[in-house]
Amino acid sequence: MSTTTTSSQPLASTGPAAAATTTSAPGPPVRESSLGVLRHGFFRAVWIAAFFSNVGTWMESVGVRWLVADQTRSPIMAGYLSIAQMTPIFCLGLIGGLTADRVNRKRLLLGTQGMLMAIAGVLTACAAMQWRDPWLLIGVSLAQGVTLAFNFPAWQVLTPRLVPREELTRAIQLNGVQFNLARVVGPALAGLLMASHPEHGVTALFALNTLSFLGVLVAVSRTPDAPAVVKRGHGPGAAAAIREAIGFAFGTRGPLAVMLAIVTFSLLAGPMLPLLPLLVVKVYQAKESQYGSLVAVMGVGAVLGGLSLRYIPRWYPRHHFIPLAVTLGGVSILALAGCRELWQALIVMFFCGAFWMWSFNSSMAALQMLVPDRMRGRVMSLSNVVSFGATPIGTMLAGVIAEYVAGKDADLQPTGAGLQIALGSLAGALVCAGAVMLIWRTPEVDGLRPGDAGYDRRAGLWRGITGMAHRPSRGSGG
Predict the structure, then answer these.
(1) How crowded is residue 35: how many other Cβ atoms within 10 Å of its Cβ?
(2) Pick from 327, 439, 400, 366: nearest CA to 8
(3) Whole-angstrom Cα distance, residue 94 to residue 317?
(4) Per residue in 387-418, pLDDT tens?
(5) 127 in helix, strand or coil?
(6) Is residue 8 in a domain?
(7) Is the whole model's pTM more than 0.70, yes or no?
(8) Alpha helices by DSSP H, 157-269
(9) Count of domains in the chain?
């Protein structure tokens, strides 16, 4: 469970000056192949190890979610599972970020990965002994959530230590491709194991995930040392340091716009994954192998979506691309809510994955380029707090809509139509939110200031979609 979806820090980035924002308006992609970043040996080793670890993570996730859905058939229980893992991140995330800025970052990452490996081992032992009660699984998820509150910021400050700043966006893109490639492989393997070995398949999933941590521990142990950015006794106090990060994230126009995009997408799109096992059972009348196939197809879409970023024109800026990705993500999930057959859902999930990747990847890359290195751990953990805090809220909201608004069946379970109404309601709200972001854009996301070339705040949906104010004149390149 390496979790490198939003990871990102450069060997060249040693302080605030190195992380200063640019005054140009680069688009989300770059022309050069992202694979070129793998020439950096430390980054390459961590990238490969993280891929195998994330394969294990997805296998475990499929197993846990399926066990809870199969035993309870309740979206409320799916919400409890999300809350168990996300609440500690929400409550302890800022402390984790503060820790990442004040202790040796390499040692912190090794420690959290070791703890996650131990928790995965406990889950494996419980499954082997047939201790599979949903509340036990929720308890294990709670322990994982506490550890992840410190693991996420430790990961997010890693990549900028391993690649030069000018290649940071490409490295973040490649991390997203790696994570979503694991999303393809992990669920596919999980579905095969659970279908071919109904009694012991889940135990095998958990055991493989436990072993997958070994590669990450070895790869990270070989990276350069990472002493604390803020020396003990030299920075502001803990409360002042957290206030500083919150002030930067929510008191500065550019970071604020990125944070709003992250929390909106997490709140309204995030519930799709926790609800997916229930859609498989209640709407598509399918089994666990089909659930794994849906998640795998989403991963294929995310991988190809990440690779497609290089074809977006370089002049198309992030403050247009992020809200466009949010809007398209809402459209794709709205289409998923309308699917009645498994084959329809398989097609739509491809586009869900592509736009999911576009939204989160571009948002995190924009935030990494804006934040000074001295507060990187705190600000990135704050993005985790708002993201992981919003997702269970959205999941519970979807559960309430499905069970208490749309109604229950004769067995007092939410109907398939209720689940579709719940998912469609959130997706519709996401489309509206994305359209608002497209109409009233925030050029500061690209580091632009009033008076800079390309600074355009004139409202307009078509203007936001096309980025016409930034399109170079014919013959000027770009």
Answers:
(1) 11
(2) 366
(3) 30
(4) 877 887 898 888 888 877 655 654 555 567 88
(5) helix
(6) no
(7) yes
(8) 159-162, 168-196, 201-221, 238-251, 253-268
(9) 1
Q: Which residues have CB under 8 Å from 19's CB, separation 6+?
A: 13, 165, 371, 372, 373, 376
CA dihedral 335, 29, 8, 263 (to 10 degrees): -40
Please check whether residue 360 is in contact with residue 229, taking contact to mean a CB–CB distance below 8 angstroms: no
The pair of three-digit structure tokens given for residue 346, joined into one six-digit string: 């398989």
Question: In this structure, what token pair is assigned to residue 477?
Answer: 């390149």
Residue 112 has pLDDT above 80, yes or no: yes
Q: Any bridge partners for residue 414, and if so which? A: 408
Report d(CA 444, CA 257) in Å as an integer: 8
> Which of residues 9 and 447 earns the better pLDDT score?
447
Residue 420 placed within a domain? yes
% pLDDT > 90, the chain: 33
- 5 belongs to a structural domain: no
Question: Does residue 27 register a pLDDT over 90?
Answer: no
Residue 3 confidence class, pLDDT cut points 50, 70, 90: low
pLDDT band at 19 (very low <50, low <70, confident <90, very high): very low
**Six-digit token string for 267:** 């709140």
State the Cα–Cα distance between residues 264 and 432, nearest whole angstrom. Answer: 11
User: What percent of the chain is modeled with pLDDT above 70?
Assistant: 85
Task: Say if 7 falls within a structural domain.
Answer: no
Taking the C-alpha atoms of residue 283 and residue 210, their distance in angstroms, rounded to an integer, is: 33
Q: Which domain CATH number covers 122? A: 1.20.1250.20
DSSP string, 326-348: HHHHHHHHHHHHT--SHHHHHHH
**pLDDT of 339 over the 80 cut:** yes
The answer to whether the beta carbons of residues 84 and 141 sit under 8 Å apart is yes
According to the 3-state scheme, what is the secondary structure of 31-78?
CCCHHHHHHCHHHHHHHHHHHHHHHHHHHHHHHHHHHHHHHHCCHHHH
CA distances from 113 to 108, 138, 215, 219, 298 (A): 9, 20, 11, 12, 26
Q: In which domain, by residue range, is 191 found?
A: 18-470
Instruction: Give the model's pLDDT for residue 5.
Output: 41
- Name the 3-class secondary structure at 176: helix
Given a cut of 80, whether residue 126 has pLDDT beyond it is yes
